[in-house]
Amino acid sequence: MAREREALRPFFVVADPAVLRTAATRLGVDVPVAPVTPEEAAGAFGTALPVVALAESVAVTPGSPDARSAPGTIAAIEMAVALTRAGRAAAVVTSPIAKHVLHAAGFSHPGHTEFLAELARGADGKAPRPVMMIWSETLAVVPVTIHIPLREVPDALTADLIVETGRIVARDLRERFGMLAPRLAVAGLNPHAGESGSLGSEDREVVEPAILRLQSEGIDARGAYPADTMFHERARQGYDVALAMYHDQALIPIKTLAFDDGVNVTLGLPFVRTSPDHGTAFDIAGRGIARPDSLIAALKLAARLAPAGGRVV
Question: Class of 138-257 per CATH?
Fold first, then answer.
């Protein structure tokens, strides 16, 4: 099994056990499902799939988006975060969610990242600033602006936003990834990084001043670089993470280079959170043909980043 082959650290699933049993039966997979408490998970991991049960049952039909499943999805995320913040788990690994399904049920957050930040509010009531990094051994990227329409990016992009993002990235690469001096390569917004202003003023007026501010704080930030020459093999040797100005500028290169083993890591949170770098794939759900590579990579990276000795949820 993958957990032995990949030497996965013990984990448990937050879910409705009946849903997982039904899925195993449908696929003809011999995977015993063991309802447990978090503290019992490691003992059950060798012979079964440990599951911490949700309070209510969940109705699921593979491949069929259904808003009735939204409360169970939200409850699972909330429970996983609560258990981790209470020290009963070491990290959170989330499965892909169908945002449109959750939104149809009244979910008010743009996606996972923003919801996790809400759940991570401190005693002062303030939510941390989450930063999405897509990581692989080949490439790591951070989009400075994320889930907004492309036409809104230039107005949303500010020097303060770039600087704040760069600070969080540099800090978490030092503290969680163990990099002594992370190297940040910053992409320009416009073609050719603005071509000295002839292809747009944002790079000269917003991006480059932000890079200088990061440098003044002792952060190894470089750029602004034309995005079309940042991601070939030789260029990647010169940095540890690329900061891109918008979603697709970051995700197209990494999904091209590392689609099967990319991991979504949320930086800036008071706990470790990873996720597969792909969507729900309703078209193949329940057919037993989906590749597990990205989920395995997410579990392994969570274990690498998490405190020693804990269970991944």
Answer: alpha beta
